[in-house]
């Protein structure tokens, strides 16, 4: 007798159910316990137990009603600087296009923002305030930049200054535009970071800036990190890659003011 798809689902072992749930997370970014329970013909209690186990293993973050895929951005900056270099350069070109002459730019740490520092136009009379020593190096000795490096304890994971000194300096700035580094972004859960101190500094950057822009590789979209920075609606410009599915793009466009797509 031919075995139906439903027979196959009904006969799944617990480990197989977890792999299927993880596959759904990777496909969609977010899963709902009620929908998974219906698909797997099991109880929501069982699904929540699987989600709890996946969260404990670092694969997802529990949210109300289900879970979000965990952001892959928790790696050390030294690793992230070597990853997706060409993709980040494409995002940086689009990000730099929104900059206007004589602006005060607040540039957060992060590998994509280092690419933005390189892409910023020469001779535009820009004042760039950054907590990233690497980004600072990309602008030194180039014409048209007044670079201000924020001080404080430098985080090896973020490759940027953190702590009370950096926070105080950011709170004294009034920037026209901030390029915010984001570990994760979801339309419902907002912008998030992996470290509480880092999230506090990012919140101060948002408060200090007239406009907020985020350039983000696709794998960090529709993902979660532990510490909330800002709602997605606080993002004035979101720069994404061209491989973002239409359904995800629609959700992002519904909450962010302007979504721009980098060339592939």
Automatic annotation (TrEMBL):
Any one Pfam family here would be HTH_DeoR
Entry superkingdom: Bacteria
Occurrences of domain HTH deoR-type (ranges) = 14-69
An annotated Gene Ontology molecular function:
DNA-binding transcription factor activity
Concerning Gene3D superfamilies, the annotation shows: Winged helix-like DNA-binding domain superfamily/Winged helix DNA-binding domain
SMART domains found in the cross-reference section: DeoRC, HTH_DEOR
InterPro entries associated with the record: Carb_Metab_HTH_regulators, DeoR-like_C, DeoR_HTH, NagB/RpiA_transferase-like, WH-like_DNA-bd_sf, WH_DNA-bd_sf
Q: Where is the signal peptide?
A: none
PANTHER family, A to Z: GLYCEROL-3-PHOSPHATE REGULON REPRESSOR, HTH-TYPE TRANSCRIPTIONAL REGULATOR SRLR-RELATED
What protein does this entry describe?
Answer: DeoR family transcriptional regulator
Source organism: Caballeronia choica
